[in-house]
Amino acid sequence: MPGSRFSLLLLEPGEIYFEDFSVTCIQESNNTYQRGRLRLCSKSIMFEPTDCKYPIIKVNLSYCSSISEEEDFMVINCTQIVEMLANNVVAPYIFLKNSFTLKFTFHYASSKECLHRLSQLHRASTLPPKDQQEMMEAIVHSRHSRVHFDPCWLEDLHESIQFEAKVIQVSPLVSNPGRVVLTSSRLYYQPYNREPVDVMKIRLASDMERVVRRRYLLQNSALEIYCKEHCTTKYLFLAFDKTALCDELFKKLEPKNKPNTGLDVATLQWQHGILSNYDYLLFLNSAADRSFNDLTQYPVFPWVVKDFTSATLDLEDPSIYRDLSLPVGALNPNRLKQLLERFADMPEPKFLYGSHYMAPGFVLFYLARKFPQLVLCLHGGRFDHPDRMFNSLQQTWQNVLNGAADYKELVPEFYGGEGDFLVNYLGINFGNRSSDGRPVHDVELPPWAKTPQDLIAKLRQALESEHVSRKLHLWIDLIFGHLQRGPKAIEARNLFHPLCYEGSVDLCAVIDPVTRLMYEIQILEFGQIPRQLFTKPHPARYAGLIPTPLSLKTSSDVQTGSQEEEDGAESRTRSWSQSRLCDLQIHTVFQGHKKSVTGLAFYSQSGDVQAVSVSLDGFLKAYKLREGKQVLSVCPIESSPLTACLNLPGSNAFVLGTLQNEVALYQIDCCRLDNVTHVHDDNITALGIGNDENEGDLVLASASSDCSVKLWRVRRANSASHFRFRPPTDLIVELEHDSSVTSLDFHPAGLKLATGAKEGQLYLWEVPSGLQLDTLSGHTDEVSAIKFSPDGSKLVSVGHDGILQVFQVDIDPPQMVARSEEMVAPDKNEDFRCLAWDGLSILLGTALGDMLIFDLVTFKVVRRVQAHGPGALTCIAVAPSVDDLVVVTAGQDGRVCLWRPRPIVA
């Protein structure tokens, strides 16, 4: 895995990472010498070897018996070390107790420099808790006060700083202190420790999507900034130590903010069936300060089904549903009776439930297989006991129903997505159960669910059912509404520990640092009640208004010109369209990705053609076209959104492009990542593959937002189906452009390359020399897609300006032969996003999610289909070598659709 293995998740809760040093570590016990980074933290030091086969070594300062300097070495004697991430495998930490001596030589700093700082922290670790906390705060304050925002990070010399403050960046289980700076055109966040980046930059005009007020530690002192899809930074959750500073920044950002739908409007839309139950619950969670980026306030969804034993699930049967008018703790009358008896004898302040319905531990209970690193962080380097893990939905429901202190609800992942959190796709060793010795692997599904995807689909159908729609407002009253607190909460059997409620404690008024830390830990770990949204009973949904799925039926064929012209066009369409494009209909819909799909490709597996999709969610997925089923879902490069993909001819190797400026070679048959290399200065936007006739190798083209296209040599290895790609030594030439390159395509013969740019330019280049052959008549806006015809004689381009152009490129110089404006396209304002060729027709994808079939003979749209939405249709492709035509489309909605012609009826 490329990059550093170190992350803030390896620290203890509340621990702060300061800085790192390049060192060589000498362990006298085994006489080993290892180069790496020594990382200085507030409660520990960590040594991260450069070679990932060796574990990261963590030494808690409280276990250090001495820290001294000998000659040019810093020597640490300790009684315990912790080993983590050996071979870069996520596994429980190994705690070794013995006498250890670690020696460090520093490459670029002096040992005295580190020793002085470390000795202060070591001394603090030996003090009583109160003195230790006070000294630690003094050290942190002193170190951070010496760090100022570096004006060199400003992108524009004319920017003026309008706001600056100390903040904490919050992400799941991590809080990282730094500084936020607002200028006239950007927002900057500079972490004090440069982890994971030096500075985050968000352009106010083009990057920022919206700003939302958030709570942190039950205080109204945080902002969550969401960025648009093209940005590397997707969100920024900032917590302030003073509410006034948070208010000030929010007011300054408010004119740039894209406001969200108001609560009243959303409720009305839900009542009338415009918003689904799922979307409305997501909206309410966000409005009540629940965020996917804060595990202490993760969105909460209800259990709606209680039947996990039947062979089939009858959604029309009311008996399969949970009573939504009661909190989980009150579903079992016998358990409730015992709780009420305890409540009657309890001194003030009284509470009914000593555990919450959603806390970090519960979130990771469900998502442990997907985020094992977070589980290790939460549980001090260990996984939970195998018997207590999320092993079975039926078992979990029974424990929630009958357990003495288990009242947890569900997370949104049970009703959306593919159910990947139910599968141990990382192959983590969670241990063996004591009952039968079986290893903890995938979650056991109820009999009525065949696959995780089937489970999620059926639970979603249950959530959107008529029965749940009639009752959901009762559950909303408990979680977000008038039954949430006070006397009404007692009557509704819905009262939790006081520290769960907003306003229960003012942390700013707590002077004693130990007491404040205790409160913070309780609030973080125990669970927090959502912000109260409604003080009156929530209205019910109008009967029978259940949202219907997006319609995939086609609209009428576009009617233009005389009837005679239409008849002629239809006749020609039927004659050349042997693939029967006009009879296409949806065959299979994969809910697919959580974010926009950015690339489609095909490859052959055991004689069958399979499709591959990649997305900004970082996942690569594969589908069998004949069977219409998904067969693979992997995340090839951790934390790297994927922007493009292509298959190397005759192999199972794929080249992937990322939003992190990388190109990777990935073997899909064995799910092996061969290499990942930064090859551009900005994100990869497009990839293409051609042949080098002189060398017999392949030529890879990578386009980027850094205004360049680079040509690389991909060499054939041992056989025709194996390739070797080693940037930067395989770089052939770099093609400079005047703006970001957005699309490219190789001539079928591989001798030419066409490129399109963000500002509308179109170019032809010679391959592999990189000589610019021609500049073509461009677009007035971004070139969305550019393709050579299958025979290489023509080139078509489409853009955000809604124009389609066709060039004859087998003549010198190339000439434009058609343009949609001149040929009077049915919709001059069509915003095209992607295209594919099939004979004399072109398939176009639009920003509205429509797929158009464009007849090049009449230069008219002969059919329009709503394929995706909301959002654009981003990718479209025609599968090669399939018995019957298969068109694959994908969009910003994350779905992947397979299209086939209607069966011919005799």
From TrEMBL:
CDD domains registered for this protein in UniProt: Beach (cd06071)
Domain BEACH: from-to ranges: 255-541
Domain BEACH-type PH span(s) in chain numbering: 156-254
Keywords, in A-Z order: WD repeat
InterPro entries: BEACH_dom, BEACH_dom_sf, BEACH_Domain, FAN-like_PH, PH-BEACH_dom, PH-like_dom_sf, WD40/YVTN_repeat-like_dom_sf, WD40_repeat_dom_sf
Protein name in the entry: Neutral sphingomyelinase n-smase activation associated factor fan
SUPFAM superfamilies named in the record: BEACH domain, PH domain-like, WD40 repeat-like
Presence of keyword tRNA processing: no
Oxidoreductase recorded as keyword: no
Start-end of each WD repeat: 677-722, 734-775, 776-810
Species of provenance: Daphnia pulex
PANTHER family named in the record: BEIGE/BEACH-RELATED, PROTEIN FAN
A Pfam cross-reference name: Beach
Biased composition (Polar residues): 553-562
Location of region: Disordered: 553-574
